[in-house]
Amino acid sequence: MSDLATVLDLRGLHAEALALVRRAVDLSRSAGHPDQHVLLGNMAGILLHTGRLEDSVRFYLEALGLARQAGDQEAVDQIHLGLQEVKKRDQERKEKEEAAQK
Question: Is CB count within 10 Å lower at the N or C end of the chain?
């Protein structure tokens, strides 16, 4: 489900991707899936692509904690990249707002 959501997200079908990854996250939480941090990171990325930066950060941080607990350094690195992208997009948004006010 999460992989399909990622493909949908890459194709610009963000709403469909978000619905699918949300279902995958819910199922992983109820089952206590060991790779829950990966699913949460995927959800955070999709939220980032929809412009929901605050929600994205929340899920990235949750994923980060679980990735560290799991000892998954590759996921930790990917989550940090996602958080950097959130910061970049937030800065770009602020600059656009400032320019529009001038």
Answer: C
Closest CA to 59 of 10, 18, 13: 18
| Range 2-101 classified under CATH 3.30.2420.10 | no
Query: Which sign, positive or negative, has the C-alpha torsion 32, 34, 39, 41?
Result: positive
Q: What is the pLDDT of residues 24-58, one digit of tens each?
A: 999 999 999 999 999 999 999 999 999 999 999 99
- Predicted pLDDT at 50: 94
DSSP 34: T
In angstroms, rounded to a whole number, what is the distance separating the alpha carbons of residues 72 and 84?
19
**Neighbouring residues of 45: CB distance < 8 A, sequence distance ≥ 6:** 6, 9, 56, 82
**Mean pLDDT (the chain, rounded):** 95
CA distance 69 to 76: 10
